Amino acid sequence: MMPDNLALLRLMQLTSANLPVGGFTYSQGLEWAVEAGWVADDLAFSRWQRLSLANTLTAVDWPLLIRLYKACEQQDSTAFAHWAELLLASRETGELRSEERQRGKALARLITEWDDLPLSGHWLTSLSSCQLAGIAWLGWHWRIPLPALAMGYGYNWLEGSVMAGLKLVPFGQQKAQQLLLTLSPLLPAAYRQALDLSDEAIGGSFVLQAIASACHETQYSRLFRS
């Protein structure tokens, strides 16, 4: 099912990298990985992103987005809180958890400023805990079909990562566009894998990213918050 024009516009607003909850101020460990020599060029960056896609987006973020969205459909605030808590617990370092909370609080503040949104208090704690909860809730409220919401979220994740790589590796705008062209076709198949995951199978670990994120917390000179 394709989103209608207004839902499509809302999807573009929700996943825009220019929003306060966009991904430009975060490297998710990439900054330390570059300094350590793990990611030294665009080919190494592409390998890094493929690992992140498999172990984070496919194994954690998308399966939980699916469940958060369905909890909204069923108006099940208990399930919604459970999946939001699991998402936060799946962030492997203090830096990654702090990033998730910051994104969640920023989006929750935005939501509470929109008077026409019927947000009751018992949902707000979950919305404030992680960005993914707010994206799922708004996607459901704005009638954005789940597959379109997931693709928008996935592309935003990929674009933010490529922009971080452009600044850190570094590579130019043309190479950044080529990376987006090469990596984005991986998203639909990865989403289909996420759809098939059972509750018990949710979870992944990109060990190098976790190490890099932990080291980044004390990195002497850095451009990115995480």
Automatic annotation (TrEMBL):
<dbReference type="GO" id="GO:0005737">
    <property type="term" value="C:cytoplasm"/>
</dbReference>
<keyword id="KW-0963">Cytoplasm</keyword>
<comment type="similarity">
    <text>Belongs to the UreF family.</text>
</comment>
<dbReference type="InterPro" id="IPR002639">
    <property type="entry name" value="UreF"/>
</dbReference>
<protein>
    <recommendedName>
        <fullName>Urease accessory protein UreF</fullName>
    </recommendedName>
</protein>
<keyword id="KW-0143">Chaperone</keyword>
<comment type="subunit">
    <text>UreD, UreF and UreG form a complex that acts as a GTP-hydrolysis-dependent molecular chaperone, activating the urease apoprotein by helping to assemble the nickel containing metallocenter of UreC. The UreE protein probably delivers the nickel.</text>
</comment>
<dbReference type="GO" id="GO:0016151">
    <property type="term" value="F:nickel cation binding"/>
</dbReference>
<comment type="function">
    <text>Required for maturation of urease via the functional incorporation of the urease nickel metallocenter.</text>
</comment>
<dbReference type="Pfam" id="PF01730">
    <property type="entry name" value="UreF"/>
</dbReference>
<dbReference type="InterPro" id="IPR038277">
    <property type="entry name" value="UreF_sf"/>
</dbReference>
<keyword id="KW-0996">Nickel insertion</keyword>
